[in-house]
Specification:
By secondary structure, the chain is an alpha/beta fold. It folds into 3 domains: 141 residues, Rossmann fold (3-Layer(aba) Sandwich); 134 residues, Rossmann fold, CATH 3.40.50; 346 residues, TIM Barrel (Alpha-Beta Barrel), CATH 3.20.20. Helices cover 47% and strands 14% of the residues. The chain is built from 27 helices and 19 strands. The strands form 4 sheets. It has a 7-stranded parallel sheet with strand order 11-14-15-16-17-18-19. Strands 3-8-7-4-5-6 form a 6-stranded mixed sheet, sandwiched between helices. Strand 1, helix 1 and strand 2 form a beta-alpha-beta unit.
Length: 646
């Protein structure tokens, strides 16, 4: 199940590193066509001389370095005039802003470091935001080292803030000396002869359409992007593609050529299949969204995930990751920068897009609808709010009979935004990928409503539970009935499985779980309608796993604190198991991640019913590359195990 281009035709317009990208495409199984689309043409030295004069006279407060090539060319020009030492001294007295690591490397060559480095991926907007967050530029003199084309919007935004903005242009973009390969590539794309087209610079797009216009192929070329996968190296290039009304099908987490090729190769066939299926169904795919997709005949395909839930043999071990649509993904962070958490949850189109994005990005075997376990409390009349840092807050906690009696009856339509998001995802999600709906378990939701937040020892929850069992059971019954109705409506909307998160139940002893929680969980599971698997997950539940199995659920999710082999033996192989890599492993090296995953797979090999997952949610600092490596390793290694019959 090793993922690669698998012979697909891949076109790139890279110029300076054309040989390198050709080798990368070939290495990852593609048939490359590399058509250099531009070259750097040095400009006259007048504007460099003006810049040098202002810099040397102390009239430059800030220098923004946009590219490594431009930074080096600037240094080389001044060095030829024997002013290098003076240049270095002047730069030390100037605030230096580097756009990404390439200018940083160029500065390092002359023993300088920037004052501010804009992290990748980025656009000029990130530079403006960083400046706004760092200092006031009113009245300051700023020079921007430009590349290729002047960015008028960038200059205007800095000027609006009262800065005196000048530019120092080192080179401009021109067409290559031999444009025949470029013409041939454009013709091939326009005629539908290519599978993927990759862009590593904005100017490539501009030059491509200029040539297409000259050749009378502009319309044909534009329309052809509905039939090919479009890859972009980073935000600036993606922004240009969108300005041309072309959707970007894939953009790596880090804007590096190697990342683009490696990452898009592993999902290229999936992306191409989706796009061409949509096109055949009459969907306009040149400028489209994930939620525009609509798959037919999905009932004919059973996912590997659902098979594992039902203890059936699978071709490989399926994997999904809790919080797979989260802050570790740049795309999610970009979405959250535009909308609040609660707005994201309650806007079906956005929630659906984020859900689909994670599956597409990671190539996992199941999607889980983007929502939150506490939203159901709002439908019950609990005053729940989410602060700016996403922290849920409850002002009036449920600690008295009056507060519990005041809870409203659950009206399923109050959660229509979740069902609508599920419908969108299920329609847009490839049939062999499962969609998981979810809810918080009554105990965990009740604990939050009683405590008003997280807790180390759950004093208020346990006090109420012990002192007033009648009130406790009343609250749990209300939450059980509401949760069952909520999950059933998710199933009706298209969820293929449901997961119940009992994140805090591990604070209970086995006896307390048996008396205060198990009866309600049995009832909840029994009330779930439809032939869908039910997953029950909790943390710190090593002493509760047997009783959790008694709830009647189909799958038990275990955290990283237990040995998965021992856990499965304990609960019995008549129940599927999900887990259980420590999320912190993903902050280490890829070799360590793979080795730890291998241990888990070796312990569950040959036994139907294992779903690979983390022992809890993926953490925000997690490198995306480590997650991709984990997903690929689980797929490939487990497939080999099953083939060998080990």
């Amino acid at each position: 199940m090793i993922k690669g281009f698998n012979g697909l035709k891949v076109t790139s317009f890279e110029s300076r590193r054309s040989k390198e990208i050709e080798k990368l495409i070939t290495y990852h199984g593609g048939t490359p066509r590399v058509a250099p689309s531009m070259k750097e043409i040095p400009l006259d030295t007048v504007n460099i001389t003006n810049f040098k004069t202002d810099l040397f006279s102390g009239k430059t407060d800030i220098l923004i370095l946009m590219t490594g090539v431009g930074t080096r060319m600037l240094t080389q020009h001044i060095q030829t005039e024997n002013d290098l030492e003076k240049y270095k001294e002047s730069l030390k007295n100037t605030k230096l802003i580097a756009r990404g690591p390439k200018p940083v490397s160029a500065l390092k060559e002359i023993d300088l470091v920037p004052d501010i480095t804009i992290k990748e991926p980025n656009t000029w907007k990130d530079i403006v935001t960083t400046i706004d967050d760092t200092f006031d530029i009113k009245g300051l003199s700023i020079y921007i080292q430009e590349y290729g084309v002047s960015n008028k919007e960038f200059i205007e935004e800095l000027s609006k803030r009262g800065a005196n903005v000048n530019t120092v242009s080192i080179y401009r973009w021109g067409l290559p000396d031999d444009i025949q390969p470029l013409k041939e590539a454009i013709t091939s794309i326009a005629n539908g002869g290519e599978d993927l087209v990759l862009f590593t610079s904005s100017q490539q797009i501009v030059n491509m359409f200029d040539i297409a216009s000259n050749e009378g192929l502009k319309t044909e070329l534009y329309n052809s992007f509905g039939n090919t996968v479009v890859g972009s190296i980073g935000p600036t290039t993606s922004e240009t593609l969108r300005n041309f009304k072309i959707s970007v099908d894939y953009e790596p987490d880090s804007p590096k050529m190697g990342n683009l090729i490696r990452e898009i190769a592993r999902v290229s066939e999936e992306l191409l299949s989706r796009k061409r299926t949509a096109l055949k169904s009459g969907i306009k795919t040149v400028n489209w969204k994930r939620t525009d997709m609509s798959w037919e005949n999905r009932e004919k395909t059973t996912s590997q995930f659902i098979k594992a839930c039902r203890l059936e043999k699978t071709d490989y071990t399926p994997i999904w990751i809790m919080r797979q649509a989260g802050r570790f993904l740049r795309e999610y962070r970009e979405t959250r920068a535009k909308v609040s958490f609660i707005e994201l949850c309650k806007t079906p189109e956005i929630a659906a897009d984020v859900t689909l994005m994670a599956v597409e990005r990671l190539n996992v075997d199941a999607a889980i609808i983007f929502s939150d376990i506490l939203l159901i409390l709002q439908s019950l009349g609990v005053d729940l709010e989410y602060s700016k840092n996403d922290g849920p807050q409850i002002q009036r906690v449920l600690r008295s009979p009056k507060a519990v009696d005041s809870l409203l009856n659950f009206e399923p339509e109050s959660m229509d935004y979740v069902y609508d998001a599920i419908k969108l995802v299920r329609s847009s999600l490839k049939p062999d990928k499962a969609l998981i709906g979810f809810a918080g378990a009554p105990f965990t939701v009740a604990s939050y409503a009683i405590e008003g937040g997280g807790s180390k020892n759950y004093i208020h929850t346990k006090t109420l539970m012990y002192k007033d069992p009648g009130l406790w059971n009343s609250l749990m019954m209300k939450l059980t009935n509401a949760t069952a109705s909520y999950l059933n409506h998710q199933i009706k909307a298209g969820a293929d499985a449901v997961q119940i998160f009992d994140s805090w139940v591990g604070c209970l002893s086995p006896d307390d779980f048996s008396e205060y929680v198990l009866p309600h969980m049995k009832k909840l599971v029994s009330m779930i309608e439809g032939d869908v698997p039910v997953i029950l997950f909790g943390t710190d539940t090593a002493t509760l796993l047997g009783q959790m199995t008694d709830t009647g659920c189909d799958v038990i999710g275990v955290d990283w604190r237990v040995d998965i082999e021992e856990a499965w033996q304990g609960i019995g192989y008549e129940t599927a198991i999900q887990g259980n890599l420590d999320p912190l492993c993903l902050l280490s090296t890829q070799s360590y991640v793979k080795n730890e995953a291998k241990k888990i797979l070796d312990k569950t090999a040959g036994i139907p019913g294992h779903i690979f997952n983390l022992g809890h949610g993926v953490l925000p600092p997690t490198p995306v590359d480590n997650v991709l490596a984990l997903v690929d390793m689980v797929h490939e290694y487990s497939q080999n195990i099953k083939k060998d019959g080990l």
